[in-house]
């Protein structure tokens, strides 16, 4: 237990400056700078964290057996100014009588601290609402931070997000993956809206999110054509292969923007769509046959295996056969490559892993109050993964072989 008797009380805001005060108080008050609101948040959180650290340190020292008193106690505070993301912040650093306290929140001799805003943005990107973040800060740091201020911290990334969404892109992307997910966003009333996402792999095997857009209504090829045109206007002159689901009209939308691009149907989407037309009890018979088709060594072998599949299941499931015949021109391009290259080209798993993280961040909220709030969370998810060096952005392993195969196929269009 902490020594409450010897603990110096943490400074609390006055009634006139309490963070939970009415919104009318915000007028005329600076958000940033030495006297700004964010500096006040930072000061209280840092001082609360330092106080908790010292409590733990004093507990470790225990009790002097000879006197029955604590072996170490608090010994006032020392003032210190640290540079933070919100400007200089003057804090009171607690001290102990023995002089053995070495804080980690604000290390000795440290004059610059980073990461306070990062902590809030990290929680926001994980799907916590402003109210949940406020409760977290109150539980962990005993910091009374209002939801309005947390919202202002997260709003600080809006300009950065818009600059990122308009940034220039590479001239050539050998492979681009496109997909959409559905999110609940309020438009007068809560509605399901598609969020369009494009991930590209560059010539130097860097994988990156090229764009994200919140659409209206259901997913459509016409909207995709507009968003792909935006990518072209940002510098993407040529794409060799675009991998997508089987949305009707997608091939025409891609060719409208990049006439030489090959449209590759995502095999995973094709198999899933096939199973939707079949009885579950037949899945164990159907899926091995479909696997034989998309793992065929050549296009001719795939065609022969498909005809055998059609002869076996055509009468029972004509819709599946029709689906594959319609999708065949977009299904076969990846069969021109060997197995290692196919793994890169035949599925949108790269972008679906990103969408899974998007859904995880959105699940806690139920719905977003505005389109900007939704896009802000998705942007923070992307940026956090970028800094973490995970599977969403960064280098694609095994890409060298795929790049060499693409150079053989499209060498006259590649400039390295």
In short:
This protein is an alpha/beta fold. Helix content is 45%, strand content 17%. It has 2 domains: 15-156, no CATH class; 169-413.
- Cα-based radius of gyration, to the nearest Å: 28 Å
Query: How many E strands?
Result: 8
Percentage beta strand? 15-25%
Number of helices: 15
What is the rounded distance between the termini?
Answer: 64 Å
How many domain modules?
2
Shape category: elongated
| Low-confidence parts | 1-32, 387-391
Major sheet: size, sense and barrel closure? 6 strands, mixed
- Which percent bin holds the helix content? 40-55%
What class, by secondary structure content?
Answer: alpha/beta
Q: Within the largest sheet, what's the order of strands? A: 7-6-3-4-5-8
Order of helices and strands: HEEHHHHEEEHEHEHHHHHHHEH
| Average pLDDT level | 80
């Amino acid at each position: 237990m902490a020594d409450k008797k010897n603990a110096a009380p943490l400074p609390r805001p006055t009634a006139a400056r309490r963070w939970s005060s009415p919104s009318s108080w915000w007028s005329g008050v600076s958000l940033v700078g030495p006297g700004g609101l964010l500096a006040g948040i930072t000061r209280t959180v840092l001082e609360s964290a330092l106080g908790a650290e010292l409590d733990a340190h004093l507990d470790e020292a225990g009790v002097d057996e000879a006197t029955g008193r604590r072996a170490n106690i608090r010994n006032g505070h020392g003032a210190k100014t640290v540079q933070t993301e919100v400007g200089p912040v003057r804090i009171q650093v607690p001290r102990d009588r023995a002089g053995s306290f070495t804080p980690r929140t604000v290390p000795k001799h440290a004059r610059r601290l980073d990461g306070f805003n990062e902590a809030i943005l990290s929680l926001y990107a994980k799907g916590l609402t402003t109210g949940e973040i406020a409760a977290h800060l109150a539980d962990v740091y005993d910091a009374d931070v209002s939801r309005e201020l947390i919202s202002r911290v997260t709003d600080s990334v809006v300009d950065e997000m818009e600059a990122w969404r308009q940034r220039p892109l590479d001239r050539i992307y050998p492979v681009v993956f496109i997909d959409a997910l559905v999110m609940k966003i309020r438009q007068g009333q809560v509605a399901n809206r598609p969020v369009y996402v494009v991930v590209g792999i560059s010539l130097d095997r860097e994988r990156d999110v090229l764009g994200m857009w919140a659409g209206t209504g259901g997913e459509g090829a016409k909207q995709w054509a507009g968003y792909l045109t935006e990518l072209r206007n940002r510098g993407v002159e040529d794409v060799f292969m675009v991998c997508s689901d089987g949305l009707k009209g997608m091939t025409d939308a891609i060719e409208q923007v990049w006439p030489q691009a090959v449209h590759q149907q995502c095999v995973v989407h094709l198999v899933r769509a096939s199973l939707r037309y079949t009885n579950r009890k037949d899945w164990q018979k159907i899926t091995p046959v479909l696997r034989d088709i998309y793992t065929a060594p050549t296009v001719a072998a795939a065609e022969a295996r498909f005809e055998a599949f059609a002869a076996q299941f055509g009468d029972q499931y004509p819709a599946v056969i029709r689906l594959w015949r319609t999708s065949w021109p977009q299904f076969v391009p990846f069969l021109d490559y060997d197995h290692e290259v196919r793994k890169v080209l035949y599925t949108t798993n790269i972008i679906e892993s990103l969408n899974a993280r998007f859904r995880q961040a959105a699940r806690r909220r139920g719905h977003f109050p505005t389109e900007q709030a939704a896009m802000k969370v998705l942007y923070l998810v992307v940026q956090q993964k970028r800094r973490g060096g995970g599977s969403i952005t960064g280098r694609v392993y095994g890409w060298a072989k795929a790049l060499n195969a693409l150079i053989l196929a499209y060498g006259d269009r590649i400039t390295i």
